[in-house]
Design goal:
Length: 361
């Protein structure tokens, strides 16, 4: 155990069997794993926590993912779409308040054409010095290219599970191959890419979770989002048990150990199953928080899982509340755009050599 934890700290070069073993740790051994991940986080990322302002601009979705509260079959959802002007005004307002990255997220909603989204990104970039992260699901390579040209910096597209059969079971409208092909296309276009997974999906095994960690390493992700499965009453998974905090924290720790310096959020879902879940995730290797700045009346209706934290609170209070939580665990709140270190290294290499990194996807 000691030599394995040392390997975790010194190189992170651990294999599938070792990851499965670490995922099965209990009690004090789990604490030791989390401490090791926290040490890696401190060495490679420092004490700063990056703050991203999240705007969920549409809860309309063409897909029917089995776990998701806003899936198209859930007819009890009150659907909304923010207008492009509302989206731009919300995003630029965040930038004026000092937030260096805005994350625009929605269901897979073709109401927003490629050109509409590109114009939203262009307008935000023209009026504010801010990084833009998109999280709009699987779209065409042409749309991704258009948005990158318009100035989008990053794209979040969680793979959710690296088990192809489980992926297809919970995502009737897609395949793992298609999802990975989107991620590879996004990387080719120069985006900073984020993948990630859910912990505790019905039918998921520790072997599947180990493969999720290995996939994050293989993709050389800039960002890795990990959160627990939370059953929504309006889905076929109503009544299934939620993913555990303990296993989620071990996954965050392992993501930190294998990626070394990726941007890893303390997800809202983790904060929704435990009052101090986000602080615990930050102490297990995470270094990003994403306060929810979706305005009223929309924010209560982006219910991808039930009892989501903070949806009835004033969005203006979310930032200060999260900052206070960061200080409470002796970390500092970063300012600026907070680009991924992997991306900055690739840029520096390109500037020196005149071409991209040979190891990029
Ligand atoms: S998980 Fe995303 S793509 Fe799937 S139904 Fe929910 S919003 Fe749509």
């Amino acid at each position: 155990m000691n030599s394995l934890l040392n390997k975790c700290i010194e190189s992170g070069n651990i294999g599938r069997d070792e990851i499965i073993f670490l995922l099965g740790l209990q009690g004090e051994d789990t604490v030791r794993l989390i401490r090791a991940a926290n040490e890696v986080r401190q060495r490679y990322c420092g004490d700063e926590v990056h703050i991203r302002g999240l705007v969920e601009f549409s809860n309309t979705c063409r897909n029917d993912c089995l776990y998701c509260g806003i899936r198209r079959s859930n007819t009890s959802v009150r659907r909304y779409r923010m207008t492009p002007d509302e989206i731009v005004a919300t995003a630029t307002g965040l930038a004026k308040r000092g937030i260096g990255t805005v994350v625009l997220q929605s269901g897979e909603d073709s109401h927003y054409s490629g050109e509409t989204v590109a114009e939203i990104v262009r307008s935000i970039k023209a009026s504010a010095d801010v990084a833009v992260t998109l999280s709009l699901g699987e779209r065409s390579f042409a749309d991704y290219a258009l948005w990158r040209q318009a100035g989008a910096d990053r794209y979040l597209l969680r793979h959710e599970t690296a088990n192809p059969a489980l992926f297809e079971k919970i995502h009737p409208d897609s395949t793992l191959e298609r999802r990975l092909s989107c991620l590879r296309g996004l990387r080719r276009l120069g985006y900073q890419i984020g993948a990630g997974c859910m912990v505790g999906i019905p039918g998921q095994t520790l072997e599947d979770l180990a493969d999720d960690i290995l996939l994050l390493r293989a993709l050389e992700v800039d960002m890795a989002g990990i959160g627990p499965f939370i059953p929504h009453p309006g889905t076929p998974f109503a009544g299934e048990p939620a993913g555990s905090l303990d296993l989620t924290l071990k996954m965050v720790a392992l993501a930190r150990i294998v990626t070394r310096d990726a941007l890893i959020p303390a997800t809202t879902a983790t904060g929704s199953i435990d009052e101090f879940g986000r602080e615990k995730a930050l102490e297990a290797g995470a270094n990003v928080v994403m306060p929810n700045h979706t305005p009223f009346p929309y924010r209560v209706d982006y219910e991808i899982y039930p009892n989501k934290r903070c949806v009835t609170e004033d969005p203006n209070q979310c930032g200060p509340c999260l900052t206070a939580r960061i200080f409470s665990i002796d970390r500092t709140a970063a300012t600026g755009k907070g680009h991924s270190p992997r991306h900055l290294r690739a840029q520096a290499y390109k500037a020196t050599k005149g071409h991209g990194c040979p190891w990029s996807l």
